Amino acid sequence: MIKLLLVRHGLTDWNMEGRMQGQTDVPLNDIGREQARRLAPLIQEMSIDAVLASDLSRAWETAEIITMGKSLELKPEPRLREVGMGVFESLTYVEALEKYPVEVQAWVTEKRITPEGGESSAEFAGRVGSLLTELRQNDRDQTLLLVGHGGSIREMMRLALGISEMGRGHFEIENTSVTELHFVEDYPIFHKVNDTRHLDGFEEPKKSI
């Protein structure tokens, strides 16, 4: 049985400002680092065989913090990167809507267009799907920690369930949340989704992109 622990990176300044990050390499802020430190004790208690992390710094630093003290090598995995949003990156939704009204509306509601310089829905599904297929084909019992982004985690969940592209929007994935997905004879079973109990009592901004 393959167990996947899917962790989203901690908070960034752009998260707080509601800016679309995509593949822009925005670092964690102090709140994001504290979120990761609060998650670390839970990760320390788990038996984990390998760690894969997006090579974008906000995910990579989150992985470093939550696995500190465990004798595990962090392996960079670009397929866990956030979807590339091209010209929308660095803009808030309102700013993007003002600058690219037709494109944003089509991108958000129907996924019919690809932002200039961005990644198409098919390309995004292809790279995340190739990683998921590779992991599912592993015939050893393993628990793998994957540290990525809201978009890549939602896409992995969507692909595991075999639902439509619009189904990505059904999953709420908050900063440093844990989602636990098991594959039993290739059948997906979710044991946790968007678990943020480690942040109970921790005051944090709610805006998150």
3D architecture notes:
By secondary structure, the protein is an alpha/beta fold. It has a domain at 9-85 and 128-196: Rossmann fold. 35% of the residues lie in helices and 18% in strands. It is built from 7 helices and 6 strands. A 6-stranded mixed sheet has the order 3-2-4-1-5-6, sandwiched between helices. Helix 3 links the parallel strand 2 and strand 3. The longest helix is centred in the middle third of the chain and has 16 residues, at 121-136. The chain is globular and about 50 Å long. It starts with a strand and ends in a 14-residue tail after the last strand. 37% of the residues are buried.
Outline, from the CA principal axes?
A: globular
Element pattern in H and E:
EHHEHEHHHEHEE
Q: Give me the Rg, rounded.
A: 17 Å
Identify the CATH homologous superfamily of the domain at 9-85 and 128-196: Phosphoglycerate mutase-like
Strand arrangement across the biggest beta sheet: 3-2-4-1-5-6
Largest sheet: 6 strands, mixed
Termini Cα gap: 32 Å
Which architecture of the domain at 9-85 and 128-196 per CATH? Answer: 3-Layer(aba) Sandwich
What is the name of the CATH topology of the domain at 9-85 and 128-196?
Answer: Rossmann fold
Name the poorly predicted regions.
none
Strand-residue fraction? 15-25%
Helical segment count: 7
